[in-house]
């Protein structure tokens, strides 16, 4: 199996977790931004979370430095372009990138300017490489419901122009869905698709509520449905797709080791799973690496991969034309 040559789709990738370390140093030096070090190896140590993280919260600490250099239109455009460029070079044909606009307002940018800048970077890459993309707007669970309303309202004008969905992310607490029922309902009315981070830190019930209260069509991670029968059943019966991120899940201690990851048992039981990086820099990974892990740990067959790829196509928030194109890559690969 030539993993490098396989067509790939990524549905769960955070912009601020996927910056090139060299870019961070270059921007910081140019703009006079203080970093712990300007040495590439030292910065990589600050950016990359260890496999033996104690928790999701420790993992999330790695996002502080990237956000220092993501506060101008030019930088956001460049960083987005570079992420899509990196993905295209490993044969990712389609990628949905998520980011939280409110994290990039520290130097005065408005939410609409931020979204437009990220869109511009994505379009630059689409024009240069054989890759298509869409954007998911993340709302921070650590912020108020009012902040989520702001993102929903200001992102509305970009629906159909590269923005496709709304997301809730950041530190996960039990029962978070109840606070965000109204803004997510408004988002659905406007035409946003819905994917929610849930079941990443031991709380399978959050997945159940994400589907029932928020109308989640996809779940970011969802590992802990394995411990909540009701959540497991609603995911399976409603064809909710799980965006699974093996390396990240080991780092955050959602699972202790790759061999214990539930992605393959879920897949074999008919739950729709997809393979993703989560954060290319923070997890020091690529889509090729994530695929390699799953192939090696679970002896994945060609047919298994094709099914997971098709799951990704169908679960994507792409338009029909793009989905047909993505299916054609698999047919060409099989040929």
Automatic annotation (TrEMBL):
Catalytic activity, as annotated: adenosine + H2O + H(+) = inosine + NH4(+); 2'-deoxyadenosine + H2O + H(+) = 2'-deoxyinosine + NH4(+)
Required cofactor names: Zn(2+)
Residues noted as binding Zn(2+) in the record, renumbered to the chain: 12, 14, 197, 278
Record InterPro entries: A_deaminase (IPR028893), A_deaminase_dom (IPR001365), Ado/ade_deaminase (IPR006330), Metal_Hydrolase (IPR032466)
Cofactor remark from the record: Binds 1 zinc ion per subunit.
GO molecular function, one term: hydrolase activity
Pfam families: A_deaminase
UniProt family annotation: Belongs to the metallo-dependent hydrolases superfamily. Adenosine and AMP deaminases family. Adenosine deaminase subfamily.
Descriptive protein name: Adenosine deaminase
């Amino acid at each position: 199996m030539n993993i490098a040559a396989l067509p790939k789709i990524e549905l769960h990738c955070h912009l601020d977790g996927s910056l090139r370390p060299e870019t961070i140093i270059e921007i910081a030096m140019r703009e006079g931004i203080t970093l712990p070090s300007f040495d590439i190896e030292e910065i990589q140590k600050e950016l990359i979370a260890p496999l033996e993280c104690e928790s999701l919260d420790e993992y999330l600490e790695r996002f502080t430095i990237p956000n220092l250099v993501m506060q101008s239109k030019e930088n956001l455009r460049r960083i987005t372009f570079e992420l899509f460029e990196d993905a295209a070079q490993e044969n990712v044909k389609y990628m949905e990138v998520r980011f939280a606009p409110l994290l990039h307002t520290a130097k005065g940018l408005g939410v609409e300017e931020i979204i437009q800048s990220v869109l511009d970077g994505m379009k630059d890459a689409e024009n240069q490489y054989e890759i298509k993309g869409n954007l998911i707007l993340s709302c921070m669970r650590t912020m108020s419901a009012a902040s989520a309303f702001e993102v929903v309202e200001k992102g509305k004008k970009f629906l159909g122009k590269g923005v496709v969905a709304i997301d809730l992310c950041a530190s996960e607490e039990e029962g978070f869905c109840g606070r965000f029922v109204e803004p997510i309902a408004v988002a659905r009315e406007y035409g946003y698709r819905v994917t929610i981070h849930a079941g990443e830190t031991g709380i399978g019930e959050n997945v159940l509520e994400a589907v029932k209260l928020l109308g989640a069509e996809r779940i970011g991670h969802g590992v802990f449905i394995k411990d909540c029968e009701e959540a497991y059943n609603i995911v399976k019966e409603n064809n909710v797709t799980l965006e699974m991120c093996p390396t990240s899940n080991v780092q955050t201690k959602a699972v202790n080791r790759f061999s214990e990851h539930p992605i393959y048992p879920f897949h074999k039981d008919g739950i729709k799973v997809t393979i993703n990086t989560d954060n290319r820099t923070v997890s020091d990974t690529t889509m090729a690496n994530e695929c390699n892990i799953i192939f090696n740990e679970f002896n994945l067959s060609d047919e298994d991969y094709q099914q997971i790829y098709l799951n990704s196509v169908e679960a994507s928030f792409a338009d029909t034309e793009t989905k047909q194109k993505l299916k054609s890559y698999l047919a060409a690969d099989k040929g």
